[in-house]
Here is the input.
Amino acid sequence: MSEMPATARPTHRRATIETADGQPRASAYVCEAASCMSAQSHDITLRLGERIAAAGMTDVTIKRVGCLGLCAAGPLVEIAETAELFERVKPDDVEGIVKALKKVKPTDTRRPQGPFFEKQLRVVTENMGRIDPESLDDYVGRGGYEALKHVLSDMTSTEVRDEITRSGLRGRGGAGYPVGLKWTTVAKAEGTQKYVVCNADEGDPGAFMDRSVLESDPFRVLEGMTIAAFAVHANEGYIYCRAEYPLAVSRLRTAIRLAQRAGLLGTGIADTNFNFDVQIRLGAGAFVCGEETALIASIEGRRGTPRPRPPYPAVQGLWDCPTLLNNVESYANVPTILNKGADWYSEYGIGKSKGTKVFALAGRIVNTGLIEVPMGTTLREIVFDIGGGIIDGRPFKAVQTGGPSGGCIPAQFLDMAVSYESLIEVGSFMGSGGLIVMDDTSCMVDVAKYFMDFCREESCGKCVPCRVGTTELYMILDLITRGEATLDDLAQLERLAGIIQKTSLCGLGQGAPNPIFSTLRYFRDEYMAHIVDKTCPAGVCTITAPEVMA
Amino acid sequence: MPVLHAKPQAPTDDKRWKIVETRMRRMGDRPAALIEALHAAQEAFGYLDTDALNYVGDTLGVPHSRVYGVATFYSFFTLKPQGEHTCVVCTGTACYINGAKDILSGLEKALHVKPRQTTADNKISVLTARCVGSCSLAPAVIIDGEVKGKVNVDDLVAQLEAM
Amino acid sequence: MSTVFTFRIDGKDVAGSEGQTVMEVAEENGIDIPGLCHLEGIHDRGACRLCMVEIAGSPKLTAACVTKITEGMDVTAHSERLQEYRRTVTEMLFVERNHVCAVCVANDHCELQDLAADLELTHFDLPRISPKLDIDASHRLFAIDHNRCILCLRCVRVCDEIEGAHTWDVMHRGLETRVQTDMGIPWGESTTCTSCGKCVQVCPTGALFEKGRAVASGSKHQRPFLPWLKIVEEERGR
Ligand SMILES: Cc1cc2nc3c(=O)[nH]c(=O)nc-3n(C[C@H](O)[C@H](O)[C@H](O)COP(=O)(O)O)c2cc1C
Ligand code: SF4
Ligand code: SF4
Ligand code: FES
Ligand code: FES
Here is the structure.
């Protein structure tokens, strides 16, 4: 049922307006990532340009930047020198920004305030909101491509792999597989033709980390992929990006072109004899194509159906050649690790979960948007300190992580330190990093049904347990939400969910029962209310069965 | 793999076929270009009809049944012409818990269309997507390619009716 | 020459050569592992999930038809748990479409029916999905009843891998998946179909059948063309 028109293309794009000659005294950063763009932030850029020109201010620059983080409050404008942030900027507010720009003194230093900024640690997102995503100079100006040059001139591929292994970086696309280990497998796999693939399919509904990274700092992903290619001896790469992200695709295209022109992609990269080039492939609206073997089938121009593993793509992937497949955020970590060293990186984090994680905050939370925190930050810090708590001060009910294969975590775990392991322990999953906050207006049975509806629509249909089983689970959940189910149905639901988890071919079917398991584990009373008392405590479901007599 | 067949002719002399042809040629007219070619054809014509599917399949040397299998697998591709305008309602998680259901039922009430349907006057097609990545603006819709955030049903209906 | 591995299936010592699957070695040793998408002679796709087995030391189940044998592996192909899973997966196939055996052309000659009997699947508890689907009888010799199709895709594979016609493929996805010919057109209008009948012969159920003939007198279970692919592959040294 998910369709997008082919016309979903960014409607306007213009380069940074530079009015200052030489060093600017003051700079206004206007967020032009998709969220703010859809709130007409580009008009603000244009208007600011006009007003500043009219006021004859020549020591001020206006810059289009990527995501400033507080997406829900867009359009966002920041005065870089003072870190003063203007939210929900309307054309009429532009005068006020101009006034503020006038007041900026050369001695002002940037210090963003408040827990939203102070609790974050920016590695992957360090350039986000600081650079023009379509300017290679901006990226290089902030240390971009230093890592690649260092790697190509001073390191062997083994050294690069060892550094990544020592950093403890794990895959950010879901399962948390050690990145260094995967790189080593690909490097050692037999074959002369190898590929590097970036998974930018980001299918988990409620997740937009990868999109923001691609829209705000596309060169970082290219640099990470190029380093990876050097480390595994590959010369060709693909970025598989959802067609639903037209702005990300167009920024990537620009970045690839600029990098090619600057000799940072293509033959003889950075004046060495290393060659690597990247192509973009568009998804076409199939969640399952985020699964690695389905993604590969899709790049090959086929139906995106997964195949049994082994053989793993690292050994036999794209066109049966060894293929390194990592997520956007995984690649985006690479340049920083090589710049600052594995030791620096692995100091952050907790246990076997090193470094930082980017999360997309969404749902019934005040500061919806994009954040990056060290692994090990607690859910409470994320939801309440950074996220600003629940909208309208309503009670927190659960936070959903891991997308359709994930689970709902109740309030009792708010003080849990977030890591790959801890999330699995409480019956959820890191997934790609979408955090969806729910309050008392959500019915947890309805939420489970929502995810099952998603899975049955997105099931590729290849294997029986997922193709038929997700619909079976959906039908039973539907009975429950209508108040028409019995306790036998509930037992059947649990039994069936277990079998689907054990027998499905790929992660979609294997993970599909998770929302049921986690809601049953923490919110069984809500199931019972629907089944026994024929009521929906949250008032979401329409009960059709007659109410039972007390 | 060498292409053993003669290159087929475009179905009509519509200039838009050139775009499709170029896109395929750039990828070596190989079967792997199938999805890119379908994207190109849908971008050019708005939807994929049998002529387009046959032409793409024949050019790339892909059996017709496989072309059809691919075109129907991916929900982005549509084999039917769409209305003049499209309204994509996001039904991703963030939008769902922020009222996407109400938007769909509101549209159904006002315009008498369900998802994947087009109004009787052929003006508006209502589609759905599972997350368009604007979750912080939930509930979100995309009207003719432009994202609208924090949508209010009545305003949306008014806007669509005025189109 | 290829290495010989010895290992165990259900406690029985067996041997096979490197590259063989658990399913193949089981078949050679008279151990019956159920499976409906598997058919010797065409490529395995591991899709029906009926052949799931346990391998000692691995927490996950794996499909025997796509699992290569290794030295010393210890396979459990039959256990209470596995049989329950198989029963449920088979039940899913029954409730997905419409299988009224009594009026089916393949009655008594259906692999799905046989499987249900072997698993002692006597009644269904799962909610029925069973949409009413079309029967396409436009072909001169054959017909397809989608109500009986279990989407094993043997027809698609045999048509592509052996006949080389690629008339069959699948369309849509998930529960909407259907096998189809050419551009989803009626079978009788297909320009690629050679009317060889191989798809009919490999179909495990009554979905594909020869017009005017009950399966018993038809040619299912006679598939002389199937070893062909295997031989070719062996010659190519795969
Ligand atoms: C159904 C399904 C959907 C997935 N979707 C994505 C996705 O959208 N993005 C992603 O990076 N990984 C996704 N994955 C995980 C990938 O298969 C793969 O593990 C990952 O991209 C590997 O990269 P990493 O090791 O860097 O995380 C998905 C997996 C499954 C089973
Ligand atoms: S689990 Fe679902 S998505 Fe994965 S192969 Fe099976 S049917 Fe396809
Ligand atoms: S028609 Fe027969 S052979 Fe083809 S997929 Fe259906 S059940 Fe299998
Ligand atoms: S859930 Fe609607 S945009 Fe992400
Ligand atoms: S026979 Fe192995 S999955 Fe079908």
